[in-house]
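Quick check before the chapter quiz. The format below is the same one you will see on the exam, so make sure you can read both the input and the output lines.
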Amino acid sequence: METKKVILDYKSALIKAQKHCAYQERSQQEIRNKLYEWGLYSIEVEEAISELISADFINEERFAMQLAIGKFRIKHWGKIKITQALKMHKITPYCIKKALQQIPDNDYVNSLVAVLEKKNATVKGKMTPLKARKIAHFVQSKGYESELIWNVLKTDAFAS
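Here is the expected output.
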């Protein structure tokens, strides 16, 4: 089944984009893609983006902070994976850095420990180098830094 491309005029697309942004934080890139999807031309898309920014419907910094905190608290993502997600939205390095600074260091380490403990409970057997590698690999896929993972794995809590 083929999806039809929705063609909207500039004013209708702008109103629809405002509603889309009011529902939840969006990045400029998400809105830009939507506007193209709705049949606007390049000049109209950039003009609409400018209007949405001026009216504070789009705010890259606010979006970056919300995505970073949300992915950290809900999905327990590490900073590497959060950074990749923000880069996919074409967020500036400044906003990425500011968003990552919103994650308190002690909460970050506590989250890492919780993810490690949860994975440790699912991998059977005593803590061997192989088991430690399996756990570390899983936690790396969640976006945590390797050095930090191994530092926590070397503590007494995981030595047994």
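If your answer matched, good. The longest helix spans residues 105-122.
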